[in-house]
Amino acid sequence: MNFHIAIDGPVAAGKGTISRLVAERLGYLYVDTGAMYRMTALLAINAGVDPKDEDTVAKLVENSKMEMRTPSENEKDGRLSTIFLDGEDVSWKIRTEKVSLGASSVAQLPKVRKILVKKQQEIAKGQSVIMEGRDITYRVLPDADLKIFLTGSDVVRTKRRLTQLQAKGEDVTFEEVLRDLIKRDKQDMTRSTDPLKIVDDAIVIDTSDLSIQQVVEIIVSKAKIMIEKKNNA
Q1: Whole-angstrom Cα distance, residue 120 to residue 21?
Q2: How far apart are CA 34 and CA 91, in angstroms?
Q3: Residue 89, beta-bridge partner list
Q4: Helical H segments across the chain, by residue range
Q5: In Å, what is the CA distance from 25 to each residue of 90, 102, 118?
Q6: Burial, 103: exposed, middle or buried (Cβ in 10 Å; 0-12, 13-18, 19+)?
Q7: Contact 194/120 with Cβ under 8 angstroms?
Q8: Burial, 209: exposed, middle or buried (Cβ in 10 Å; 0-12, 13-18, 19+)?
Q9: Dist CA 82 CA 66 (whole Å)
Q10: Could you give the 3-state DSSP secondary structure of residue 6?
Q11: Domain 4-218: which CATH class?
Q12: What is the pLDDT tens value at each position of the chain, 233 positions in all?
């Protein structure tokens, strides 16, 4: 019996790392939907297209091939997933601040979201998944068995994001990252199509004062209880 876990939350709330670890514990497929918006932004950047040009960006997405898989042994360099765009490994190319802001822009385009949501739903069909993003709990997997909203304070999330960027050799300051994070949050929460929000049946977990393993344990324990109930129903 398939079991779907949907996780939403703002940037740097720990969604990726936590989802990947929960997936490993449960033996599920981890799907990073944010990577699909990042790939879309990279497509626009590489093509020299305005990320707000809806029709052109939508065509780029439709004509592209987006793939994700669990990193192989020789790909374990800190990435959570191995991401391929038209056959090229772009796992790290999509993690720059420029692509992050571009992703937030393309995510506001209804035609682009419609195409990507359909692709995400196709991935979840017929298998157990843990999928994370901004609109998973109510748009992509509205009937998910377990819905989680991960959050955290601006300062804690900025520190996490700063560490990630500096580890990749990017020369950025705390103030710059905080400014971009606040801008990204505002874009995500105020966009007209599928804004970031907390649904009534989601379990909210503030990760500010919790370790990654503590959050993983919370989610895994809740999932196991629900899986057992579902199997016995």
Answers
A1: 20
A2: 12
A3: 84
A4: 15-26, 33-47, 54-62, 97-106, 110-124, 154-167, 174-190, 212-232
A5: 26, 33, 27
A6: buried
A7: no
A8: exposed
A9: 11
A10: strand
A11: alpha beta
A12: 899 999 999 999 999 999 999 999 998 989 999 999 999 999 999 999 999 999 999 999 999 999 888 888 899 888 888 999 999 999 999 998 899 889 989 988 999 999 999 989 988 998 999 999 999 999 999 999 999 999 999 999 999 999 988 988 889 999 999 999 999 899 899 988 889 999 999 999 999 999 999 999 999 999 999 999 999 98
What's the Cα-to-Cα distance from 157 to each of 28, 171, 180, rounded to whole Å?
Answer: 26, 18, 11
Q: Give pTM, 2 decimals.
A: 0.84
Measure the CA–CA gap between 53 and 59, rounded to whole angstroms: 10
The residues spanned by each domain of the chain are: 4-218
For 35, half-sphere exposure in the C-beta direction (CA atoms, 13 angstrom radius) is: 26
CA nearest to 112, candidates 170, 152, 62, 75: 62
DSSP letter at 9? -
Assign residue 82 a region (left: φ > 0; alpha: ψ between -120 and 50; beta: otherwise): beta
End-to-end CA distance of the chain: 11
